[in-house]
Amino acid sequence: MGYDLQDAYQQLANAPSQRRRLAFSVEDQIFVWLRGMFGVSTMAAIFGQLCDLTCAWLEHQWPSVLARHFADDHLIADTSQHQALTEQHVLSEVELLPLWMDHTPNQAIWLVAAVELLGFRWDLDALRVELTPHKRDKYLAKISHLLRQAPAGQAAFVYDYKEISSLIGSLVHTCAIFTARRSRLNALYAHRNRLHPKWRGHGLHLPRDVRRELKDWAHFLQTSDLSASFDLPVHTSSHIVYSDASNEGCGVVVDGQARFWPLAKQAHEAEVDIGVMEMWALHLALQTVVALGSRDSVVSFHVDNLGVVFAARKGRSRSKLTNHCLSDLALRAMAANIVMSIVYVASADNLADAPSRGDVSAFAPLKVNLAEPWVDILGSATPNED
């Protein structure tokens, strides 16, 4: 077509009857896209499919190449041993496509072991991923913008749904790597729900819990080392793990061995919800398999509470106590490089049901010394059993 992407948008007819399809013919392959009413959604779809075409064409030209993209971020990997492919080779080939994008200096195509993609720097040799300084500064600037104070006597800082959503999106993006941070977004989500997308702005101060959450995120983003491992385990643990909770305490069963942890007196006085207790039981189960030597593996944990299943998958809950536990759970799993596979079972099939009520007579003793997850919150520890 002879236009870059921006010009191409202007050349597409607006009326559906004038141009219904956008097509590319590449050798013996024809790529066809049905088009809808012209707008942002259609533009995004055409753009994404153009990126698909680019990746398909590069893989067609060089069989040893793996080309992938996420939105406008492209990753080109040469799997051949000689690695003779250069960035200039790729760029010259991309420019031959019927519809191509301008190449800008800050949008390089990387063919090396360390790449920047989606705001992270990926070290393919060390299998480490790090938030780039640019993204770190960008996210900190957003937080500082929301935390700024209005001078005395002036109206409160005006912000809107879009600004809050933009910040949440940035922090959620960070959570893709630092999963333990997922539980630190509840106040922001709740505050966004008080706003409306169509309301331009509100002269409101940020609530105290939102400010506290933002300051916590700012402190985290100022950490000197914002990196994590993406060396995912390929080994599946042979441990058979069950956890459960009751009003009496928490029970864990691992490979026919069981243990009961009575809840602290403060837990009963505070009337802690059973869902929190179930999460504490899961926390004890993870500690147990780590104490038994599990590392670099996928471990299945059987629970009979769907709330625990969904909270563990999302990484956050409405309960502050559960969120505290989830955060520590994620950190411990990350430290041992364990992927937690949470499996739901009916209560009748949960082997930890009786141990959670203090009955471990049907099992061999499970001898581990663990830190009870409620100690930091409730300030009381129950005696460890040997």
From TrEMBL:
Question: InterPro entries given for it?
Answer: DNA/RNA_pol_sf, Hepadnavirus_pol/RT, Rev_trsase/Diguanyl_cyclase
Q: Which Gene3D superfamilies match?
A: 3.30.70.270, HIV Type 1 Reverse Transcriptase, subunit A, domain 1
Report the superkingdom from the record: Eukaryota
Q: Enumerate the SUPFAM superfamilies for this protein.
A: DNA/RNA polymerases (SSF56672)
Q: Mind telling me which PANTHER family this protein's record contains?
A: REVERSE TRANSCRIPTASE DOMAIN-CONTAINING PROTEIN (PTHR33050), RIBONUCLEASE H (PTHR33050:SF7)
Protein name, per record: Uncharacterized protein
